Amino acid sequence: MDTLVSLRVFRQVAENGSFTAAAERVGISTAMASKHVAHLERQLRARLFNRSSRHVSLTEAGSLFYESCRVALDTLD
Question: How far apart are CA 12 and CA 54, in angstroms?
Fold first, then answer.
């Protein structure tokens, strides 16, 4: 799995508060967006989002990772 794509998906989920909205923005399925975030969570050995049936929010680890991710992606762009 492409980690750079996973980082872009993670950022979109964090900024949109939704896997569905993030998937639409990136042009992938919601299931694939979830797999990208799961890929990052496995690599980091940390849960990045609190998930419920209606809401997605960053965990403390997710908030810290989001800031680093945002800076890195902005630099790459």
Answer: 17
For residue 35 the two structure tokens come to 């797999």
Report whether 70 contacts 8 (CB < 8 A). no
| Contact in structure between 45 and 7 (CB atoms under 8 Å) | no
Q: What are the 10-residue block averages of pLDDT along the chain, 77 residues in total? A: 94 96 96 97 97 91 96 93
How far does CA 39 lie from the centroid of its chain?
Answer: 10
Residues 6 or more apart from 66 whose CB is under 8 A from it?
10, 11, 14, 58
CB neighbourhood size of 38 (10 A): 13
